[in-house]
């Protein structure tokens, strides 16, 4: 029965398009919530007496110490549901009435993952293609936490994954395997850091190098040097937008001329809740939004059985891509501020989100929460 309860919690979360599951212990009850879009929703209340067994089963699946309940633990589960692979990051937290458990679900993309499925506009698709065609330099992927940076990295790697290329991928944890790609799982305790791996890889005749997480100044310098020596390097880090991501790189102690020479582009992404296609309704916009005509029809979330009354199913990526140009190189060399770098964008995150708002992919409340109303001219 306990195995069935755990299976039900996870499988229903997958079916509902949830990105996270929260199991909250209280004095006399247990609450299970799913994060769909940006919000948490109550879905079930298992009996209090099964709490310890449910948490224990999840800890066993995640290879956690079931005898340790006094400190937080982190593990992972790989599973298959309806033919799709999923990676589940498991985190436990000691609370007053037992351990709280958070499961963060990451679906495997499979062979169908491609750039065309990431929600890019035609303008941004052309920018990405142009950068990949050069086959050298640094292409930096940025965004907030859980914004799909690693998904973009894997899509880029898959796009270039051919027999004629030698591709290395440096990963903190290999969640999904890619046939034909040399995937290295970093192990700092054993001395295999991103920096030491990069030094070794330069003797491995690489064509493409992908680095999946934020790393220190030495790693950034080595990545820049690799990118400047006719290798294509993909990297990811936390930043709110493309200009901020570039400024972080500029402030890591790497010479401006090396950054200006090696950088090919910065791709920023954020994820917003996707309106349910089954129940969304078109309404005239009730408030003024910069870039919208008065009474522009927009979609609203309603809720139906298909989306468990949330109004949302899945997520939508919004993007901005800063491409190397003489103007950008000049801005880097004189260490221009982020606001000036942002002026070099032809399509900003806000502008891309506005188009998806008008297309009915996202709702007005989520747009305003992310970008504000702007100033109506």
In short:
This protein is an alpha/beta fold and 377 residues long. Helices cover 31% and strands 29% of the residues. Helix 1 packs across helix 2, helix 5 packs parallel to helix 6 and helix 8 packs antiparallel against helix 9.
Can you describe what's shown?
The structure is a single chain. With about 375 residues, the chain is of the alpha/beta class. It has 12 helices and 15 strands. It has a 7-stranded mixed sheet with strand order 9-8-10-11-7-12-15, sandwiched between helices. The protein is globular, with a radius of gyration of 22 Å.
Write the layout of secondary structure elements.
Elements: H1 2-15, E1 20-25, E2 30-36, E3 39-44, H2 51-61, E4 73-81, E5 84-95, E6 98-107, H3 122-134, E7 137-143, H4 149-160, E8 167-171, E9 182-185, H5 194-201, E10 208-211, H6 217-228, E11 232-238, H7 242-250, H8 256-262, E12 263-275, E13 281-284, E14 297-300, E15 312-323, H9 326-333, H10 338-342, H11 349-358, H12 364-371
Parallel strand pairs: 7-11, 7-12, 8-9, 8-10, 10-11
Antiparallel strand pairs: 1-2, 1-6, 2-3, 4-5, 5-6, 12-15, 13-14
Helix pairs in contact: 1-2, 5-6, 6-8, 8-9
């Amino acid at each position: 029965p306990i195995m069935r309860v755990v299976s039900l919690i996870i499988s229903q979360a997958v079916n509902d398009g949830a990105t996270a599951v929260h199991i909250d212990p209280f004095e006399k009850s247990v609450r299970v919530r799913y994060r769909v879009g940006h919000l948490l929703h109550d879905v079930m209340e298992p009996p209090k007496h099964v709490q310890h067994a449910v948490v224990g089963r999840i800890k066993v699946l995640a290879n956690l110490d079931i005898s340790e309940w006094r400190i937080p633990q982190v593990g992972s589960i790989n599973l298959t549901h309806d033919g799709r692979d999923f990676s589940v990051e498991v985190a436990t937290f000691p609370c007053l009435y037992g351990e709280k458990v958070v499961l963060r679900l990451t679906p495997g993309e499979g062979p169908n993952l491609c750039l065309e499925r990431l929600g890019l506009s035609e303008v941004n698709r052309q920018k990405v293609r142009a950068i990949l065609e050069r086959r050298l330099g640094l292409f930096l992927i940025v965004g907030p936490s859980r914004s799909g940076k690693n998904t973009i990295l894997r899509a880029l790697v898959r796009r270039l994954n051919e027999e004629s290329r030698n591709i290395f991928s440096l990963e903190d944890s290999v969640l999904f395997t890619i046939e034909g790609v040399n995937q290295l799982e970093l192990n700092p305790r054993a001395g295999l850091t991103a920096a030491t791996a990069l030094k070794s890889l330069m003797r491995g005749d690489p064509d493409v190098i992908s680095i999946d997480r934020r790393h220190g100044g030495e790693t950034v310098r080595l990545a820049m040097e690799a990118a400047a020596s006719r290798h294509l390097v993909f990297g990811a880090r936390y930043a709110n937008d493309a200009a901020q991501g570039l400024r972080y790189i500029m402030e890591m102690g790497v010479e401006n001329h090396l950054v200006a020479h090696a950088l090919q582009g910065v791709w920023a992404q954020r994820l917003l809740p996707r309106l349910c296609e089954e129940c969304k309704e078109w309404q005239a916009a009730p408030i003024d939004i910069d870039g919208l005509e008065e009474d522009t029809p927009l979609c609203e979330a309603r809720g139906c059985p298909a989306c468990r009354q949330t109004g949302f199913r899945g997520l939508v990526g919004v993007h901005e891509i800063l491409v190397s140009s003489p103007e950008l190189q000049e801005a880097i060399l004189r260490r221009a501020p982020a606001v000036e770098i942002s002026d070099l964008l032809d399509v900003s995150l806000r502008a891309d989100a506005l188009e998806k708002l008008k297309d009915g992919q996202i709702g007005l409340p989520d747009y305003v929460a992310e970008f504000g109303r702007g100033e109506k001219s």
